[in-house]
Amino acid sequence: MRMKFRLLSVILILGSILISCLPAIGQIDKNFIENGGKAFAASTVAECQSSLQFCNEVLKVIPNHPLINYLAARLNALLGNNDIALDQLKKAAKLGYTSSVRWYEMHQLNDQAFIDLRDKKEFKEIIEIMKIADTPIHKSEIAFIVKDKKLETEGISYDPVERMFYLGSEYKIVKVDQLGNSIDFTIEGKHDGLGWVNGIHIDPVRRTLWACSNGESKVEIFKYELSSGKLINKYTLPLDGSRHMFNDLVIHPNGNIYISNTLDGAIYIIHNSSDKLELFLKNKLFHGLNGITLSEDGRVIFVANDNLGIYKIDIKTKAFARLTHNQSFNTYGIDGLYYSDNYLYAIQSMLLPQISRFSLNKDATQLESCEIFEKYTPYLSNPTTGVIVDDYFYFIADTQGKGEKGIIIMKTSLE
Predict the structure, then answer these.
(1) Half-sphere exposure of 133 (CA within 13 A, CB side)
(2) Which of 49, 120, 313, 379 has the most other CB atoms within 10 Å of its CB?
């Protein structure tokens, strides 16, 4: 997701999603923008009790949510429920909410809610847990560095025929070799109405490239001829008074395109046969959709919700369910999501940036484990999306190329 969207809406989107999609939560308060702020700023008994009620309802459904565990901990501490506060604070730290967390200014070490707990043995143990959680994990290597620092990349894809990578930026898409040399792929770019490019994917069979484009007044899907960069078609979502953002897309073996709409809470489809953009599935649970991928047999969509985790959707019946998992890891803040050989590869960037691999059970209803390939390392600055190439997972480690070297593309072995 583009940085400016994330910065403006992390806590706001979180709350609005949870309020709108979970019946028990929705009965408490329909305005989480206020409620989320109150949870951070609560000081009186009444304020703390009201916000804690909200947090407890959320935790009934998502017990391993790092942010909500932290908020519940601070509220319990303010209410004098010290043992509960310490347990929830420990859980939040294990799940990645630490003093190094991104976007949030308040944490365990500066939150005045915990001032009476800081001399306790349990709090000192939490500090040690935080140190472990903040320990970098480095299992990847730099694949190449894109030298053009003017790019602000979001999406990445790969053409196995020409063995070239493609990166999306503002108003254009570029073609990149494995030495980091880039040339413009789009011919007309901004002139054709191409806006900020989010997810991009290549159809190597039909020799096309598909891109999510978000402009100031409209969201569109662009379809290009891969050999020439010529625009074949673009598909515009009609204006309906609501906010929309096409975030990512995936290509089905039959040529259908499935697209996640972050702000609309929906998945759209472009049928290969009719060549039209249509609504596939919409639900309140889907507000905040991001990365989207397919099972190898083409029967199942896996789609990430920034805050609620990963959903499995049966393409034929449109039945869906959130993937469950134990409480030793979290699925919070997933951007790019990719399926391969009964694993889901995820780029998580909302707390401490990390690249994760989740193993699925036989029925693909649960996540059994989480392996972290890269976490909180110097090169991993605002990672967004990736692509699986042969036996490697390539990912954009430094989205905006603000470092001295340029835009860093890293890779990690899948074996």
Answers:
(1) 25
(2) 313
Could you report the per-residue pLDDT of 239-292, keeping only the tens digit for each? Answer: 787 889 999 999 999 999 999 998 888 999 999 999 999 999 998 778 789 999
Please check whether residues 352 and 305 belong to one and the same domain: yes
Same domain? 141 vs 113: no
Q: How many domains does the chain have?
A: 2
pLDDT tens per residue, range 94-153? 999 999 988 788 999 999 999 999 999 999 999 999 999 999 999 999 999 998 878 888
Residue 207 and residue 176: Cα distance in Å, rounded?
A: 17
pTM score above 0.70: yes
Distance CA 46, CA 139 (A): 48
Question: What are the strands, taking DSSP E only, across 169-253?
Answer: 173-176, 182-184, 196-203, 208-214, 219-225, 231-236, 246-251
Q: Assess whether 197 and 217 both reside in one domain.
A: yes
Residue given tokens 């905040």 in the structure block: 288
Run of H or E including 165: strand 164-168
Q: Evaluate if residue 31 carries a pLDDT over 50.
A: no
Q: What stretches of 206-360 adopt beta strand conformation (E)?
A: 208-214, 219-225, 231-236, 246-251, 257-261, 266-270, 277-282, 289-294, 300-305, 309-314, 320-322, 324-325, 334-340, 343-348, 354-360
Does 91 share its domain with 169?
Answer: no
Residues 83 and 68 placed together within one structural domain of the fold: yes
Place of tokens 């407890």: 56
Structure letter (DSSP) for residue 191:
G
Same domain (yes/no): 126, 246:
no
Structure tokens at 384: 């967004």
On the question of pLDDT at 307 being above 80, the answer is no
How many C-beta atoms surround the C-beta of residue 298 within 10 A?
12
